[in-house]
Amino acid sequence: MDADIILKATQLTKQFRGFYAVRDVDLSVRRGAIHALIGPNGAGKTTVFNLLTKFHIPTAGTIMFDGEDITHEKPAATARRGLVRSFQISATFPHLTVLENVRVALQRPAGLAAQFWRSSDVLKQLDERAIALIEDFKLMPWLREPATNLSYGRKRALELATTLALEPRMMLLDEPMAGLGHEDIDHVVELIRKAAQGRTVLMVEHNLSVVSKLCDRITVLQRGEILAEGDYATVSEDPRVREAYMGKEAA
Q1: What is the pTM of this model?
Q2: Within 10 Å of residue 148's Cβ, how many Cβ atoms?
């Protein structure tokens, strides 16, 4: 496998009772890139994510991560490799504070993940790193605030901070802009750009304006198959992509 490719799916296929949700998908994600997976509703984007993160086992095809075959690996083993999906590990604990949420996430890379009997003084050794992440994501005014009290946009920022606390090598973000107001979108775009420094991101996103600002490469799915691939200029000018999103123009 090309050393510049961190994730490669070949002929990836998932069939449910005779229906092909994903069929013969070839996907290569370059190391250090922000790569978008887009397409109309029902295109198979979430199924691809579920296959890559091992929530579904492929009917056919292979998945390679950093040169290793992970096709039939358990989800937890894949996550331990550093391939993590935002909703799996970054859902916040609503009644813990911002600081406590990030500190809990930091326990795993620090080797304290299962050591619930350790004193709070031991866990406080993680505070310096936790506070640095919280500052990066502009959440310091809410340091002692329970996560349940945060606005939706700030909860997204906290989720990204907890994701980064796990020191992922590659993040899969499933519709990170979903539900955000216009005022929050630009902020979350910058947070993702910051989070992507030194790592790879694959994201499903419906907001094409966000995709155009953020992503190096785009793969377009339709009916479970790849319709087009390239940079934003290439795919946005593709008549097949235009038809998939806007329908065929009347003659």
Answers
A1: 0.86
A2: 11
